[in-house]
Amino acid sequence: MAHPAYVYLNDSVVPWDDGKVHVASVGFKFGTGVFEGLRAYWNAEKEQMFVLHLAEHMHRLEYSQKFMRFDDILPGPDVGQRILELLRANEFRENVHIMSTVFVQGLGPPSTTGPIGLSILAAPRRDIPWTETGCTAHISSWQRVPDTAMPMRVKCNANYQNGRLATLQAQADGYDTAILLNSRGKVAEGPGMCLFMVRDGKAVTPPVTSDILESITRQTVMKLCGEYLGMEVVERDIDRSEFAAADEAFFCGTAWEVTPLVSVDRLPVGDGEVGPTVRGLQDVFFDIATGARDDHAEWRTPVYG
Ligand code: PMP
Predict the structure, then answer these.
(1) Ligand 1 midpoint to CA 286 (Å)
(2) Which of 48, 251, 252, 253, CA to CA, is 20 to 30 A from 194?
């Protein structure tokens, strides 16, 4: 399989083959790690690559480490610099997905809190097939893990088994992805992305106390709705029965960007076609992410020069 020349492990950029972690480490054995997925967008016209929301992701990475009670907290700005170093080492000139992970490299029982290791991977991104066509989802029979059991607002590796099971079930049942309800029976989010619906001219999304990740893209979409579409955003509980009454719905996240959702449980959302709000959001989102539009320069960190 083709792979980038370099990865980052602990203190340095290393060749791909040297990116190894011991099988006895607590991070490997119990999934004791926290991570951030980021995107960097290549702008051919400007001969520049931009990491989207680097500072915000690094801020959340610090919070995740703190909450998981790691011995040392790697400062976000430090990890951010290492991400840039790795991107430069690989000389990427295309869109990439980045995964930065802080994990317990020490040996011992699940309660081990150190020493801490750092890994960073960056690789050309896979295009999402549903950006244009929209995707289908069902309401999963897997419930979103409640904050009383595992904090879903922390990007802990172990949390991701919940979404993995939901995705696998959705695919086995013939859907593209899943929508998870929380323990109160209200809509939470997708396996790795947040959710909006457009109803009565407003963009509606579940509040951050719905057992969801406090998504950076969700926050961005909320701003874009107001600034560019003149649309009010409402944070409130969403019931599963509302999708059939909505005009549009879409997922959002670093990996999912802005992806239309055209049916839920095989009932069309609106007329089952990709709607004007999501198209408008996609236009402005990609223009800002790639730097095609100069607005919101504070969201983009240039990699080269
Ligand atoms: N929810 C979950 C469970 C996720 O894993 C992600 C991806 N990080 C998101 C939502 C979207 O978050 P963000 O916009 O910060 O990438």
Answers:
(1) 17
(2) 48
